[in-house]
Amino acid sequence: MTDTSARTRTLRAVVADDDVFTASMVASALRSTGIETSQATSAADAWDIIAEVEPNAVVTDLDFGGGDSGAELLWRVHREQPWVGLVVLTSHLSPQLAVGDGTLPPSVVYLVKSQVKDVDVLVAAVDAAIVGGEHHLAEPDDDVRTVTRAQAEVLRLVASGASTRRIAAERGTSVRAVETMLGRLYTALGVDADEQANPRVTAARLWQQGRVRIR
Asked: Element (H or E) spanning 213, and its range?
């Protein structure tokens, strides 16, 4: 258990997640341990709060569904306030499944939402980020599918609702090449492309559930 009474000073944190319920739950959990916590539902709003309250740590999701991503927020904090501890709290086992190339600043503590079973795990991650230490979670024991980086990018686009033609345009390739990529992606995910259920829907569901990682 985390001994909040042992803290020599009040810590401040900013929680950012585009899902209001999640942001509120995480912020409430941190407040219950004595950490003063503010919350935001966009990277832009989070930065404004960070500039105002000068927190000890930032806990952020990666994909905000529009505008700056959580990764961009983390890089800005890393550049302009490098003393702030950085924590990612995401549904995805690999950051590339959430945003762009998934590159994150050094010393980021990476948490997967499904693995955070209680507030102690969250607080331990915040403490580790602040002091620059290491924090490890056990490997997931659920049914996890593994894809390549290229397949991860295609999966992210599929999950966003992109058509085959749009994926081709995004990747600078032909529709036929994307159809081949999709077939290989479904195979990697263990999705039967011939089943009655739409394989795109099944693939997107695996993405949403955080059951995919990059090898």
From this structure: strand 212-214
